[in-house]
Amino acid sequence: GAGVSQTPSNKVTEKGKYVELRCDPISGHTALYWYRQSLGQGPEFLIYFQGTGAADDSGLPNDRFFAVRPEGSVSTLKIQRTERGDSAVYLCASSLIPSASNYNEQFFGPGTRLTVL
Amino acid sequence: AQSVTQLGSHVSVSEGALVLLRCNYSSSVPPYLFWYVQYPNQGLQLLLKYTSAATLVKGINGFEAEFKKSETSFHLTKPSAHMSDAAEYFCAVSDPNFGNEKLTFGTGTRLTIIP
Which residues contact B114 (CB under 8 A, 6 or more apart)? Predict the structure, then answer.
C-alpha cells in the first residue's frame, strides 16, 4: 500500500514569507508526528497528533510554527514569517495509535526540504 | 529527559568487514530503543527495535543490536558489510510511559563502505 507522502518535496521561499507543508499519512494511522532535521543533525520532534488533536506540541520552537489535522488524516505544518534558521528537512511520520502495551512502528515520509533565502 | 549519543559521526569499513555503530542512551525509565537507516533522498526506515523483550534484537539486512542496561548501550552490528549498507544511521529512544512514542534521535553516523 501507499506510504506516507509529503508535498512539496522541495520548497524555496524568502525570509518573512509564510509556508505550508503537507503530510498524507498511511490510511488508518491515527497517530501523526512532525520532526525537523537540520543539516548534520538527527530529526527533532515537533508535534504529535492523536486523531484531530495535538496531544503534544512541546517541540514547536516558537509561535511562528503551527500544525493542524482537521479531519484526523492529512496534516499541514504552517510556518509564519520564515527565518533562515527554519531551513531544514521537515519529516512526517504516522503510526497506529500508540499504547503502553504494544509498540507501533512510525513510518516516515521522504520529507520536505525547506530553504529560506 | 531522554537522550542518545552516537559516537563517531563518520565510520568507514571495508566491504566484508564487521560494521559496528555505537549508541549510548540516557533515560530515567526503561526505554524503547531503535535504529533507523536513511538512504540519500529517502525517508527513515526502521532497521530494528528493542521494546523490553529479548535483549539481542535482529533486524533487516543482517543487522542486529544488543541492549546492555549496565552499559546503557545499544550498539548496531553487522558481521559483513555490503556496498549497499552505505547510508546514514540514527539511533533513537522513546519513553513507553510517556503516553505517546515520540522519538529522540542521535545526531547520526554516516557509514561509508570501502570496496
Answer: B12, B13, B14, B15
